[in-house]
## 1
Amino acid sequence: MSIQSPPVDWFKAPRGAERVWIGLAFAWCMVMTIAMPYWHFYGKQNATGESYRVTPTEFMARTQQFIENHKVGERDGVAVVEPPPGGDAYLLGQMWRWTPILKLKQGQTYRVHISSFDLQHGFSLQPLNMNFQVLPGYDHVLTLTPTSSGEFSIICNEFCGIGHHMMTGLVLVSE
Amino acid sequence: MATSITAGMPIPARPVGNHPAGRVRTCDTTGLPVCATAEGFVRIHAVVAVVFLLIGGSAAILLGLTRWPAVHLLSAEWYYRTITLHGLNMLIFWILNFEIALLYFVGTTLLNTRLFSKALAWVAFGLMLVGALLVDYIILVGRADVMMTSYVPLMAHPLFYLGVVLHAVGALLGVVNYFGTIYIAKRDHTYEGAVPLVVFGATAAAIIAVVTLLHGAVTLVPTMLWSMNLIDSIDPSWYRITWWGLGHMSQQVNVCAMVSVWYFLGAITTGARPLNQAVCRGAFVLYILFINVASAHHILVDPGVGAAWKIWNTSYAMYLAVLASMIHGFTVPASVEVAMRRKGFDRGLFGWLANAPWRNPAFSGFFLSLVIFGFGGGITGVVLGTQQINIMAHNTLRIPGHFHVTVVGGTTLAFMALTYYVVPLVFRREFAAQALCRLQPWLFGFGITTMAIGMSFAGSYGVPRRHWDVEFTGAQFAAGFDPGAHVMLGMLGVGAVIATLALLLFVLLVVWAVFFGEKNTGHAMRPWHTDRTVAEAVRDEHEHDDAVHKTPGTLVLAGTFLACFAIYYFANWKWLADVWQVR
């Protein structure tokens, strides 16, 4: 009766195996429904979307101020900046680089502000594979606690023009 | 072998249709009334759909060979251009043209009515075609290297947005024509009682399509004005939320249309009938009510929207739309199981499945579509759409790894399966090379699944989507991926080549059949079935049965599915717990 009109008395409650399956499927949906709010309150990895309006020029000025205040060195011509533990850090995405290089300490928490000077970009921290969207006009704040140390790459995973695949940056984490 | 699948099928006395004289024929195979006007439009939309499938498929093989690191075929510029072309031709032009054909066919034939308006159908067709050609032209001349999503402030030539808008408006008019058709069928009493389930499902798809296409207009009209310097700026966050009202919801149209095709093909290939009409229809209603919030799936790690909004919307309001898919995923194979058992294939748990008409490409295509969509697309979709887990998936190859087993391994394969009936019944031409027809769904299903697995695992290593160079040659700071990612990208390439070859084979078989196939006018189509008893059951379509249905095989399959689902789901939470802490 998929292609013919159903009999007049088509409206019936499900029975047998079908009823069992609907019950199981519904129960599973409820498990998944609870999981997200649970993790929001008790899990350690959340994308809360904390963000503020900011113009691209203003964000660039803040980034430059941050570099001036906390610069500890340079690598390949790019400033290496060490924010104070618990403090704010700034990361600017633009075609096609991430500035500056952030130097963090394992186990410390930082408020990392990320925004774009031009197009949309994708903050993708490798090889951890943590990904966040970066939009011009939005100061996206990640309250980040590195739990491992070493050198991590930032790549861009939102298409931003012909140099997109060459847009990289660095995060250095010491123990 | 000699009996046609539906010969002797007792068609109950039908109410009189509303066709003008000479504009209706009785199908030689099914006995169903066919509106000549609608049939004409079904044909041209189907032909145009296949042409766009060919364009998108040609792009696909180039992309697959570029992402395969050992081959790395295209230049960066042409890679990004081709990916834009691929997305629009496949996801919009091929699918929407096929769906409009499907709506016209289902609306008129199954309701025994004429098409509402021929003029409207011409306007819809013209707008869709002109829009699509504009878009393809402007992409190929290099003025719209913006990806299908064209995220602002990335800007394309105004004709790009105009083309998409024209195509969307055309499709909207096609949907309006479908609603008009249902209206006149109701008004003229051309059918009795409730509409058939397939029409109900198609109507659900049409309703979602209206909301979808309106989102497209709301997003892209201002964006076009912006690209013409008439508007200062478009907010990127607003753009993403409303654009995905088009982008994701259109995929829900595809799901809805695909499920309707499953029911349709289940009925005509095995004589399957839904176990319970109320359940099936209720599940379609859940789609209409809850699927429209899914644009959130693309905004889960965005700034600008908060966690509560993300969590509620990404769950489709407590997963009620997922529940709908899980219900269809059970009732479709269960109805096939009941039909096969009634025909005497009652041995063991899976005797019904082993004896199913696998030599019918419409059946194998439909059942593979069901399995690939459920186990591949469904599970990955829910997991990637879990708000926090999305941190490990956003914009990586895990995303295309998911949607190539929903919209390609699921929807496109189901539409291909349907085509094995569309050509003999609507074009009234037989397929040549039946052995190749039988092979095609398997080859396509295998290729696309292989490619999607390669994509998913490469994405788990962090490989981004829409990215030309995993070696990051020329970048300021060296970056790269685990060697395992390269193996997976190779798998992606091999799978893409196999899938595209199967796609080209499909196009070749269809084009050959449509232009050179043996005519079957005046007699029933050559049956795909090799199993004589399968044919007999089609007439059960009209019987009514109150017995309790026995579906142990499907329950085992569904239980296996749920176990896979739960394992993958909790494994992803475990992986998430191992990354840096972030709020």
Note: Residues 76-109 of chain B form the longest helix (34 residues).
## 2
Amino acid sequence: MDTSCTPGEEACIDERQGSILTKGKSKSHIQCSEDSLAGAVSQRACVYCGARVVLNPVTDAVHLVHGPIGCATFTYDIRGSLSSGSEMFRNSFSTDLRERDIIFGGEKKLAACIDEVVASHHPPAIFVYATCVVGVIGDDMIAVCKEASLRHGIDVIPVESSGFKSGNKSIGYRAAADALLRLIRPADDRPVIRGRKVNFLGEYNLGGEMWVARRYLKEIGIEVNVAFTGDSTVAALKRAPEACLNLVQCTGSMHYVAMSLEQTYGIPYMDVNFFGSENTAETLRKIAAYFGDEKMKQRTEALIEREMSAIAPILKKYREKLAGKRAAIYVGGAYKAMAIIRQLKELGMEVVISGTQTGKKEEYQCMSGMLSEGTVIIDDANPAELEKFLREKNVDVMAGGVKERFLAYKLGIGFVDHNHDRKDCLAGFEGAVQFASEVYTTTCSPVWKHMKKSTEVKP
Amino acid sequence: MSGRVKMVNENQCHMCMPLGGVIAFKGIENAMVLVHGSQGCSTYMRLTNCEHYNEPFDIASTSLNEKQTIYGGEANLRKAIDNVIRVYKPGVIGVLTTCLSETIGEDMGRMVESYVRDSNLKGVDIIPISTPSYSGTHTEGYWAATRGIIAHYARAVEKHSKVNVIIPHISTADIREIKRLLELMGISYTLIPDYSMTLDRPAGGQYSKIAPGGTSAGDIARMAGAPATIQFGLTCPDELSPGLSLQREYGVPLVNLPLPIGLENTDLLLEALQTLGGRPMPESLALERGWLLDAMADSHKYNAEGKPAIYGEPELIYAFAGTCAENGAYPAVIATGTESNKLAARLNFLLEGADEQPLVIEEADFAEIGAAAIKTGANIAIGHSGGKFLTERLDIPIVRAGFPIHDRVGGQRIFSAGYAGTLAFLDRFTNTLLENKHASYRLLKKEELKKQEAITGDE
């Protein structure tokens, strides 16, 4: 075991051994989906964070965080989701609980805050997020939201996202899913009219990615009913039952919603993936095949042919520069990790480290199948482990989130942002070019040459 | 002065207490921070600091979950300290509480004491600080931690010649400038907390998990024997004031000064340094003062057109308010997210010469700051990235200063202190006004002309 760490080594903690494995060399099962180890400096967030990521792109809703100020400040307009209409979702509302509220309860203040927000902004819906303290002091958020909903005639939806429930964001995804399902629940028993419209689940319109996929779908003859939740509105989400099919992209956050929609409304679902040119082409073919319409299939092939031939020479250029370079991946979910692995391989690169914050056992198995022998696979990594493997594996470029970025730079390694904060579109054929260009720019930057030199001259 | 009428906080101007505490500990040599709460708190604080400082920013968490929230988090705390010691090998561990651990009533002092006793711990100082988010902002958290760190180490010692210098939360460039001024004036000192290197590391050399630099425990232990304490803390609450407690407990005279930002404020520091036995102002500093004065004269008519909205942490906005006032750019709005009982009185005195008194708002959010800016006709802002909607929605440009700055690079080293820093700030301020003027004056005149012609035409 040359790459996975042995107990007693500086960078590692015994209890973390089971969460790190080297493909082909060590145990076949990874320890995952467990609570983070105290003091291990996990890169994970909390239940609230998971819920907020999923719901935040609902553009015209008010997002009200019920708790002391921090949780709201830390999430104040930090996401790159784009809107074609309302910008309400970018505001950060907090009940700003103080000591007296902790002692006497925060229900009255919550109700007053809801009233204020309704009076000043007239939103069609308010999501009220529970934070740790609210869970402990026992505010009856459900009752307050229900009363406010009746008082104002709009949806006031509690999101049960008390942070301490788990350090695992996926529990928060579930809280968000429950909130969405509550919103969708039809107000009356009107019959649902269905056309050839699809919902696009697990797509957050970062850098306008939903718009790219929607353009492709329109070209082959399919209309997007509503995305969950990128560039969505409250009214559009309520019309979700009108779709005939649910496309599920970020599986971690949306499988549960898809299953619920199937159960309640009989809408089938299919997994899709618009990250990377091959994934995009496969996805479009899969959708066309589902509808079984020959004309649609032809249009799909024409689109793929046109886009692929447009980007092929560009990708070829990058492939020549990047072939053989060594990459590391550490991202939130396995779905994203696998999409990145595939794209990096298409660019001729070797993935030597791959890890996630919230991957599940079967996802790790699937991921492992895409990786070559000797690759380090890691669940819930911490900076010490990442540093150790980045050094040992002689990595040229890393893909991850903001917290990993500066560690990579300090070690003289390129970095690709694949997180909710990014501003650029990485989806579809054009996104594949953007991704390749970013990988090239950072991997082959002249800056690293100078950093290396200055490291060498120092004692 | 406005008491808080509004309940909801819309777009936050302040952060939570533990965040400030974390920054203070990052200024202590060989220190690591452990946050006793749910996993998300540490991750959010890391994210915010990474984006501002552009540095890896490790914070450990006790990762409390549902079970510990009910039965207590002592086991997690002990395990977390074990793991932090093992991986980071720190000399100091700052343990900060959160809303969660405070609400469930964790007795930090006892738990830390029993850990130290049971593990027979040597060579690692564990310093618990109470920082419940609902009791204050990051400003109070910063002061509380700084005071707590000093209280932990300070002992009655023999008198020596090193002056204590206690700084509020400022940029790393400003810390370096204050140190340079002290050295130029021939003053030997202990500056705390000194994160000028730890949170702004130069590249080159080996990367280490805990950045080199910071105030040493040995120096802090001798602070009680200093001839005086200079504290840039006019607005620091008495009960949190590190300088005041050194004066009360050990008789170290406290010289409370404004931050040396602005001509007069910097003069005050240099006068104090001379009184404390420093040498007369060296020629090089006299030149810097001359250049600043020269620029003030050159720019005074442009600056007179500036009506700034200044927001952020009390100590910083007090210094910037003075700087603007001495240049004839009388503040239109002065706002802080903090509740400060000292700021307003100080400001009244400072702004006696202004024709119109500014709107001073405490416990402010950006909804209020924006409304105040419209009401007063503010045409420029000074503050952190949280105010970005002032530009985006109200066309008011921001001269960035303070924390956090996540939408520009170099936020950690924005230079504003001393004569040289004030000159750099003043040029940024004046040029922002000029840029706006040049971009708009032709168009404004043209529109005015058209309007007049339309009126004449109608007649």
Note: Chain A touches chain B through 76 residues (CB under 8 Å).
## 3
Amino acid sequence: MNWAEFLTAEEMKLVHEASLAILEETGILVRNEKARRIFARAGCRVESESGVVKIPGNVAEEYRKAFPPSFTFRGRDPRYDRTIPQDGPIMITASSAPDIIDPETGRQRRATSGDIAGIAHLVNELPGYDVFSISTLAADAPEGLSSLTRFYAALRNCAKPVRSNTPNMKELEEVLALGAIIAGSEEAYRKRPLINHHYCPVVSPLTMDVESTEAVIYLTEKGLPVYGTICPNAGMSSPLGLIATLAQGNAEFLALAVLMQMVRIGTPLIYAVLATVADMRTGNYAPGAIETAMLQMGHSQMARYYNVPSGGYIGLTNAHTNDAQSGYETGMGTTAALLGGIDMLNMGGLLGSLMVFDFAKVMIDHEIAMMLKQLRKGIRYRQEDLCMGLIDTVGPGGTFMDQIHTLEKMRTTAYLPKVATRDIRDRWEKEGRTEIGFRALKEARLILTRDNPALFEAELDRKILARFTGLEGVAVSGIPV
Amino acid sequence: MAVQEIFNAVLAFERDRTADLVKEELQKQTDLQLILNEGLIRAMDEVGRRFSTGEFFLPEMLLAAKTMKAGLEVLRPHLSSNMGELMGTVVIATVKGDLHDIGKNLVAMMLEGAGFKVINLGVDVDADGFVRAAEEHKADLICMSALLTTTMPAMAAAVKAVQAYDRRVQTMVGGAPVTKVFADQIGATAYSADAPDAVVMARKLMTDRVHKQ
């Protein structure tokens, strides 16, 4: 399949050169002292008063050579490991929303660890999702245990790769300790790290923070899987123009990627973005806009230029309910990104951009994910698939409905959705004129009534609760069905 | 009429001209209240009206606020303490651990455009920082912003510290993960959902406070 691309080969080179110039002449404000030292050691100019680091072009180019071409997500069950770009496009649920639409009342409230447990169970059972990025926060987490609560609830209920962030080093180390218990030992964990990490160390424009940068350096030193997402917001934290935002975002990616190589040569990367254009009528954050997809496509092209996997938060919607707006914003954004060659889509379950998780939305997004994967499969040409013999046998005016070939292909040729309706109107009326949100939630409940095959053995739970006091009170039973 | 020219200059985003016209009016001994209310504040009210109908976009709102501020800075030293009080002093910052400041800067600029004296402390400010600024600037209102959900505890700590310092100083919180429920939980005086809302709330808080006295 040929990707839909905006830039010519020459233009990609020019964008790359513009990014290098930004890094060398304007520089990056690096607030993390350790990072500044790493940049300095590698030959960058560090302005000690301001903390601005200027990365010479030749230094960036040198470390760029080390960018590996693939990234692997690992889960408790190796069958669910995914490597991009080979296994792409992979779907990762969108994450860290503070709120949830209560599936009983339909009202928005703060999300809890019980919600995470239910979502993890669901994601474990939905083939369209490859990685579970922890969808929400946990308002019920005991003091100081917010990350442990979230990761425990997630890992316990999902055997697929789990990914999320941590707010500080203490919580990161605790999460890694949890991982080691699950793996059986620290050594077993080192051999097969089953937790995947993500941060936003870069704050546009051109700034690297303290805490997230610290975590990225730490994980990179240890050879543990981590990647960052670059988020310029045109009109606010980048120029109000697409090519300029592309160049700045690209520079920000290079700064982070090159830092990671400086820490440990050959560190796997993902070129991940959530680049947006602010709605300048009000300043509102507008990830549902088509420009998000356009920028994603541009960044995916640059990822291919660097021969690294590309990904990002795509398919977010500004809508607050599962209506046409949420349908077309998620649908159009993800389709454009897919046709632009993205390897990893961070999408699934959120309404109101990044604020609220909704069970119905995660089911609808699952169908969209399955449709996207189908789209990427494309039409394969194989001579035997032309069915020349069959066409001749059935002949003019005949039917294919009862052919053996049809029987053999009936479950696999097309994606068969459970939530979207194909009923005629009459039937739809008789069945209550259901809206998609209703049908989606019904489907989610159906899945959640079944046992979760991913659940921890009781012995593992005991070990974890013995090690981390305070987690016993955490609700891990999931949503009521 | 000259004060009308000030009004026009603000709406045309003519910063220098606005400052010059205010100087001129001061020299002519025009009533201060007139210059402030009819020239500057009325202009910003018109800007706000055009912004809420979608005629003015955000950058125009900000440009107008900067222009208004230029005029106000010329006027401020001459304002009686009564008038100064009504205008109010606001300290604003992003809380400890958070480096995101665009929304907060938007609020700061719009508060300035509404006539408030605004001290913008920047980002990553801890509870102590807020209290010291409140003390130093005799602030009437402390505004706190956060984008990261993980920094919300720092917001709670800051609100507590400000109240411990002086119960009369009011606090207003905002930012993407902040809700009215959270604001109430941590004991903040007010919550605002966005920058225009922040201006409305700030004005209300100042008016209420003056009436209480």
Note: The mean pLDDT of chain A is 96.
